[in-house]
Design goal:
The complex is a heterodimer of chains A (about 240) and B (about 250). Helices cover about 25% and strands about 30% of the residues of chain A. Chain A is of the alpha+beta class and about 240 residues long. In chain A, the strands form 4 sheets. Chain A has a 5-stranded mixed barrel. In chain A, strands 1-6-7-3 form a 4-stranded mixed β-sheet. Chain A has a 3-stranded antiparallel β-sheet with strand order 2-5-4, with no helix packed on it. By secondary structure, chain B is of the alpha+beta class. Chain B has a single domain, classed as GHMP Kinase, N-terminal domain (Ribosomal Protein S5, domain 2, 2-Layer Sandwich). In chain B, the strands form 2 sheets. Chain B has a 5-stranded mixed β-sheet with strand order 1-2-3-5-4. In chain B, β4, α2 and β5 form a beta-alpha-beta unit. Classes of the chains: A alpha+beta (about 240), B alpha+beta (about 250). At the A-B interface, loops of A face β3 and α5 of B.
Chain lengths: ~240, ~250
C-alpha cells in the first residue's frame, strides 16, 4: 500500500525550512486527487472514498489526523458554521428582531430574546439601529437562514474604530494558533481587535496611526498563505514598521 | 493501356490524398499536439475564485462569485444551489469588433458551459443559493468555449466549491482525412474535402465521463471513438497544466 501523503509531504519539507518539523502533515490537493490510499483511512470533511483511495472533493490543504483524512479550504466565500463569531451590519428591524448582513449566502437574524439585556419591542432601534455594526455568534444554521446571538463574551455593538475585510479563508491565519497572532498584534499596536470568521475585522485603538498599523499588520498576515513560523516573521515585521 | 493509365491516376490520387505521415498542419503541429497552454489561478482579486486559461492565442478568463443569495427568488431551489454561467467575447477579442452584449451564440455557449461543468460540482450544501460563473474571452483564436470551460473549472476549484473532479476540455477537428486536436481559427475555416469539422469535448479529468460533446460540421460515426480517444489523451496534458496552476497559487 502506497502512502502518497508521506512522499508529497517530504517534498514540501525539503523545500521549506527546518521550522516545519512540528506542524501536522499537510499537502495541497486539488479536486479529484488521491489524498491517501488504503482501507485504514476514513474520509473526513471535503473528502470521499473511491474504492481503495480517499479522494479530495475540493481544492485545499489535506490533513491526516489519526485515521481521518480531511481537506481544509484555503480560498472562496465564507461558509457559516455554528459557533462562529462574525461581524455584521444591521440592515432591517422586524417585529421579532434584527436582520443582519454577515456577508454570506443566506441572511442572518438576531432575535430580540438573544440580546444580552431586556429590550422593549417599542424601543428596538435604541438598542440597535439600522447601520450599526455588531459582533455576534452564530447560534444555528438552517436551510431557512442563520440565527445569531449576542449572549457571550466580547459580543455586542461595536462603537468607534473601523472595520475592514480580509479573505474569509485567511481568518485562521490572522488569529494564529490559539490566538497567538492576534494577541501579538494587539500587544504591539495597543489596539482592540475583533475578528469575524466572515473576514470582517474591527480595529479600535488610541489613535488612528495605531489603528492603521494594526490593519497593515493584519493585511500582511492575510497575504501569506503557506508560511511556517509566521508569528516569528511578524515580530520582525513590527521591528521594521 | 487503359489499365496503365488508371494505375497512374490512382497513384497520383494517393499522393494528393494526404496520409497521416505526410499531412502537415498549418502551424506545423503534429496531429495530436496541443497549442502551448498557460494557466493562472487567482487573477481577479475581487472574485471568490478566478482563473485564466489559454490555448495559444485564445485567452479565457473566468471569475466565480458565490455561493450567494439567488435573485430572482422564484429561481431558488431549496434542495440545492444552482450554477449560472455567463460566457461572452470581449469587443476587442476578435478581428472585427464584436458588438457588446449577449448574442444568440454567447447564450448558447453559456448554457453548454453550464451543462459541461455541472456534473463535476456539488451544490447540495448551499440551498437557495447561486454560484455565478463569468467567462470572458480576451483574445479569440478558435476553441474559446473549451478554454472557457478549462478556466471555469480552475476558478470553481479556487472558489472552494465542492467538486468531484476537474473538467478538461478540448476541441477536436477533422482536416481532410485526419483527426487533429485543438484547432486554430485558420484550421477551423478549412474548406477542402468535407469542410470544417469542429468537435468540442469536455470530460472529467480522472474518469471517462464526458460532459460536453458538441459537433459542428461533418464526421463519420465510426470516427467518433477515435475523436474521443484523442480528446482523452489531450485532456491529460491539460490536466497537468491545471494541476500545476492550482498548486502554484498556494506555494508562492
Amino acid at each position: 500500500m502506497k502512502n502518497k501523503i508521506n512522499e508529497a509531504h517530504e517534498a514540501v519539507e525539503e523545500s521549506s525550512s527546518s521550522e516545519s518539523l512540528e506542524h501536522t502533515k499537510r499537502i495541497v490537493v486539488i479536486p479529484g486527487e488521491v489524498i491517501v490510499s488504503g482501507e485504514d483511512f476514513l474520509p473526513g470533511e471535503g473528502a470521499r472514498r473511491d474504492g481503495e483511495n480517499i479522494v479530495s472533493n475540493r481544492f485545499g490543504l489535506a490533513e491526516i489526523a489519526g485515521r481521518v483524512a480531511k481537506v481544509i479550504t484555503i480560498s472562496g466565500a465564507f461558509v457559516p458554521r455554528r459557533g462562529n463569531v462574525v461581524i455584521g451590519r444591521v440592515t432591517d428591524i422586524t417585529f421579532h428582531g434584527w436582520m443582519i448582513d454577515i456577508d454570506s449566502a443566506s441572511s442572518a437574524f438576531l432575535p430580540i430574546e438573544e440580546s444580552p439585556r431586556f429590550v422593549s419591542k417599542e424601543e428596538m432601534d435604541q438598542f440597535l439601529a439600522i447601520g450599526d455594526v455588531i459582533a455576534a455568534k452564530i447560534w444555528s444554521v438552517k436551510a431557512k437562514g442563520i440565527d445569531l446571538t449576542l449572549k457571550g463574551k466580547g459580543l455586542g455593538k461595536l462603537e468607534g474604530g473601523f472595520i475592514f475585510r480580509v479573505i474569509p479563508s485567511r481568518v485562521p491565519r490572522v488569529i494564529g494558533k490559539e490566538g497567538s497572532m492576534v494577541s501579538l498584534i494587539k500587544e504591539k499596536t495597543g489596539c482592540n481587535i475583533t475578528i469575524g470568521q466572515n473576514g470582517w475585522i474591527w480595529v479600535k485603538g488610541q489613535d488612528t496611526d495605531s489603528e492603521i498599523r494594526a490593519r497593515r499588520a493584519i493585511e500582511f498576515v492575510a497575504d501569506k498563505v503557506y508560511v511556517d513560523g509566521l508569528t516569528e516573521k511578524m515580530e520582525d515585521w513590527f521591528e521594521k514598521n | 493501356m487503359l489499365t496503365v493509365l488508371l494505375k497512374k491516376w490512382r497513384t497520383g490520387l494517393k499522393k494528393i490524398n494526404m496520409t497521416k505521415e505526410t499531412f502537415k498542419r498549418v502551424d506545423g503541429r503534429k496531429l495530436n499536439e496541443l497549442r502551448p497552454m498557460t494557466a493562472k489561478v487567482g487573477v481577479v482579486p475581487n472574485a471568490d475564485g478566478s482563473a485564466m486559461f489559454s490555448f495559444g492565442n485564445t485567452i479565457a478568463i473566468a471569475a466565480i462569485y458565490g455561493p450567494r443569495k439567488l435573485h430572482p427568488q422564484h429561481m431558488q431551489n431549496p434542495a440545492t444551489g444552482i450554477l449560472r454561467c455567463t460566457y461572452d467575447l470581449l469587443s476587442f477579442s476578435v478581428a472585427d469588433r464584436k458588438k457588446p452584449g449577449p448574442s444568440r451564440r454567447s447564450q448558447e455557449i453559456s448554457k453548454v458551459t453550464e451543462w459541461a461543468l455541472l456534473p463535476a460540482i456539488d451544490l447540495k450544501g448551499f440551498p437557495n443559493t447561486v454560484v455565478d460563473v463569468q467567462i470572458y474571452i480576451l483574445q479569440a483564436d478558435a476553441g474559446t468555449r473549451t478554454a472557457g470551460i478549462n478556466a471555469a473549472s480552475l476558478a470553481l476549484a479556487h472558489a472552494g466549491i465542492p467538486m468531484k473532479d476537474l473538467i478538461c476540455s478540448v476541441a477536436v477537428g477533422k482536416q481532410d482525412k485526419n483527426i487533429v486536436v485543438d484547432l486554430t481559427k485558420e484550421e477551423e475555416d478549412f474548406e477542402e474535402g468535407e469542410g470544417a469539422t469542429d468537435f468540442a469535448i469536455a470530460k472529467l479529468a480522472n474518469t471517462d465521463e464526458f460532459t460536453l460533446l458538441q459537433l459542428d460540421g461533418k464526421i463519420q460515426p465510426e470516427l467518433i471513438k477515435d475523436v474521443m480517444k484523442l480528446a482523452s489523451e489531450a485532456s491529460k496534458e491539460i490536466y497537468e497544466v491545471q494541476k500545476k496552476a492550482l498548486k502554484e497559487v498556494v506555494q508562492k
